[in-house]
TrEMBL record:
Name of this chain's protein: Thiol-disulfide isomerase or thioredoxin
Cross-referenced InterPro entries: AhpC/TSA, Thioredoxin-like_sf, Thioredoxin_domain
Residues annotated as signal peptide: 1-19
Record-linked Gene3D superfamilies: Glutaredoxin
Organism: Salinimicrobium sediminis
Gene Ontology MF, one: antioxidant activity
């Protein structure tokens, strides 16, 4: 854990603070960089060059999407009440998902455990592309500290940025957002063969989630320190 924290602290210190005058929205950044990425990524997947595909995704995130501001979209909670992204006041760990995606053995237990530990510091949000009834059933697997939301595309009333999140980056995809909804990073879930021991699957997922949460917390701490220095006479 110490090594993870030191690594991400270094990352935060060398990355400049977001320049508000230069900042664009996530949807604008995606519109700008997506065409080139899709052309190259489609070729990589057609030729089964998965290493190249992963490199292209990481490059898109690092050079095109990080630092942009996530659009303030609205979706629905399990009571069918509209919920806006900006209602979340803490750093946000937002993961897009769907019922036809099978989670790995230790994925949900690892996320549940970490939401118990860090729920007072991070807003954990699962956004499903599913019907209300299906999402309500899936939500039973998640800890109470995880907010489960859904998008029912059959109604065709979801915000444009929501459609872009699904059809451009696919899912599951995790968005690490600071309090201002600036994108710190975008990640895909950890991958491993199905059928491995539960403990190994749990550990792999736990480590992956922990590194992401550490990045959010270190960024939040760094921003607080910068603001404190600015306000201190």
């Amino acid at each position: 854990m110490r090594k993870i924290l030191l690594f991400f602290l270094t990352q935060i210190l060398v990355v400049p603070l977001f320049a508000q005058q230069d900042q664009i929205s996530f949807s604008e950044a995606l519109t700008t960089h997506l065409p080139k990425y899709k052309k190259q990524a489609d070729k990589a997947y057609r030729t089964e060059n998965l290493k190249r595909a992963d490199f292209l995704f990481d490059s898109l995130v690092k050079y095109g999407l990080k630092g942009s501001k996530m659009d303030n979209f609205k979706v629905q909670d399990l009571k069918k009440k509209p919920v806006a992204l900006d209602e979340f006041q803490k750093p946000v760990y937002l993961t897009t998902y769907a019922s036809w995606i099978v989670p790995t053995e230790g994925e949900i237990p690892a996320l549940n455990k970490l939401s118990e530990k860090y729920g007072d510091q991070v807003d954990f949000v699962m956004l499903f592309w599913d019907s209300h009834s299906t999402t309500k059933e899936l939500a039973k697997k998640y800890n109470k500290n995880i907010t489960v939301l859904y998008v029912d595309e059959m109604k065709n009333d979801s915000p444009y940025v929501i459609k872009m999140m699904k059809h451009s980056l696919g899912f599951p995809t995790s968005f690490l957002l600071n309090k201002d909804k600036n994108i710190i990073d975008i990640r895909r879930k950890v991958s491993h063969p199905f059928g491995i021991e539960f403990e190994k699957s749990f550990d792999l997922n736990y480590d992956s989630f922990t590194s992401a949460i550490s990045l959010l917390l270190i960024n939040d701490s760094s921003q607080y320190s910068q603001a404190e220095k600015t306000l201190t006479p």
